[in-house]
Amino acid sequence: MTRSQLLPFFAVLFFGTTALLAHRLPEGLTTIELNENTGQIEIVHHLHAHDVEVVLSEILKDPQWSLDTLEARAQLSLYIEKHFHIVDRSNGKPVTLKLIGAEMDNDEILVFQEAEAPLPSTLSMRHDALREIIPEQVNTVNILLGSQTRTLVFAKKDTWKDL
After folding, report:
1. What backbone phi and psi angles, to 5 degrees, belong to 121?
2. Are strands 27-35 and 138-145 parallel, antiparallel or unpaired?
C-alpha cells in the first residue's frame, strides 16, 4: 500500500478515535456527608447540565426549557426531590430530606438537600433521576461517614439498594 492510499485510512482512524474519546457517559454523582459545623447531613447531586435539559425538556414538554432561569432550577430541584429517596430500614419510614436549592457550576448543575443527623444505621436508597428518559444514565452515591466511604451505583433497572 502506498502512502497516499494509507492517508485516508489513518484520517478515519484518528477522527473516529477522537469522536469516541469525546463521548461522555450520562452519569450523576451524589455525595452525602456530615457537616460538622451545622450537624446536618448534606446531600449534593452533581448532574451534567445537558442531560438535565434533555430530560426535563421532554418531561415538561418544552423544548426551550433552560437551566439559566431560577424557575428552571427550582423545577429541577423538585424533580430531584421526587426521584431520590432514603428510607430507614429498621422502621420503614422515609428519612426527611429538606430541599435547599440548585446552582450552576460550569457544565454541571448542583442540587442541594439536607437531612437531620445522624442517618439511620440501616437504610435503603433509591436514585432514579434522569433514568426514565436516558436509559444509560448511571447515578453514583458516595456516603462519607467518618473515615469510611460507601458507594451505591444505580444503573439500568436498579431500584432500592440497602446500605
Report:
1. -70, -25
2. parallel
